[in-house]
Design brief:
Layout: E1 3-7, H1 14-23, E2 27-31, E3 42-44, H2 51-61, E4 65-68, H3 83-100, E5 105-111, E6 121-122, H4 134-151, E7 156-162, E8 164-166, H5 175-184, E9 189-191, E10 197-202, H6 203-214, E11 220-224, E12 229-231, H7 232-243, E13 249-251, E14 265-266, H8 269-273, H9 282-287
Parallel strand pairs: 1-2, 1-4, 2-3, 4-5, 5-7, 6-14, 7-11, 8-10, 9-13
Antiparallel strand pairs: 10-12
Helix pairs in contact: 1-6, 2-3, 3-4, 5-7
Length: 293
């Protein structure tokens, strides 16, 4: 049985990862200030920026596997917050403790913001890294440091670059709930970048992807996305249809900017190679929000 430490276990993605790993029969240790999202996981209330406390936890439970999700993620503020630097340092020390205590396999949450966004279709092995925000810079620096640290003890590491996710419990200020919530309340909703193309994946499928990656031999960068490019305007139309409020939706076509390019899509061949297929189509996934919003 794998003994898996999941950081950020109570977060938007973490709850799904814990559930998926428990379903696979893993012994799951959930580390989060809020505690475990599941009574079947071993809960550890811990400040992951407290290095001695984290080292003590790892030395005590000696996890064989690690899924590191925890990071500063306050909506919009996280992009260029100095707290990214704290999380870069804490995450590196977490991994060093994990390897020192016999850890074998780790999966880290990366981000599509590590890529150079002048490229529209982002591929792990050919699209250059050129992050434009402190968040992306710190994530990419952590990846480079982790890959270097992992060489000596020969720890297996995968770096999962997450694209655009959604699902129940998502911050109301993010794109999908910011469109859906007004429509459900029979108020107008405006989409300003209707022609922009993105790749959306339901958060439950993100959790499934992380579990599949952890249980696979894949190493290095791997995109976590659906592989189904969709215009934001088309996403909004599905939401309006589901809410029965098509007449309340206005779609505009604002011009692209460097930090909001017209097209950002993911190559998912590497993710497909380990057998992962999303459980939800976009319409099915958006449908799950109606009862949860």
């Amino acid at each position: 049985m794998n003994r898996v430490l999941v950081t950020g276990a109570g977060g938007f993605i973490g709850r799904q990862v814990v559930s998926e790993l428990l379903g696979r029969g893993d012994e799951v240790h959930a580390a989060d200030l809020a505690g475990s999202p599941s009574s079947d996981a071993v809960s550890h209330r811990v400040d992951l920026l407290d290095e001695p406390r984290v080292d003590e936890l790892i030395s005590r439970i000696k996890p064989t596997h690690l899924v590191h999700l925890a990071w500063y993620a306050e909506h919009r503020k996280f992009w260029n917050s100095p707290l990214n630097l704290d999380w870069l340092t804490a995450s590196e020390k977490l991994f060093r403790s994990f390897t020192a205590h016999g850890g074998e396999r780790a999966v880290f949450a990366g981000t599509c913001a590590e890529y150079d966004w002048t490229h529209s279709h982002l591929r792990e092995d050919s699209t250059p890294s050129n992050p434009a925000t402190l968040y992306g810079i710190c994530k990419n620096n952590l990846r480079q440091n982790i890959e270097a640290i992992a060489r000596l003890p020969q720890v297996s590491v995968a770096w999962a670059r997450i694209f655009f996710l959604y699902g129940p419990g998502e911050d109301a200020r993010r794109f999908i709930p910011s469109v859906l919530n007004p429509l459900l309340s029979k108020r107008p909703a405006i989409v300003r970048n209707g022609s922009h193309v993105r790749d959306f994946l339901h958060v439950q499928d993100v959790g499934r992807a992380f579990a599949a990656i952890l249980h696979s031999p894949v190493q290095g960068v791997i995109n976590v996305a659906s592989g189904e490019p969709t215009k934001l305007g088309d996403v909004a139309k599905i939401l309006a249809e589901l809410a029965g409020a098509e007449s309340l939706l206005e779609i505009q076509d604002s011009p692209a900017t460097p930090d909001n390019p017209e097209v950002l899509t993911a190559d998912v061949g590497k993710l497909r190679s380990i057998g992962f297929v999303p459980g939800y189509t976009l319409r099915q996934g958006l449908g799950t929000l109606i009862g949860a919003t």
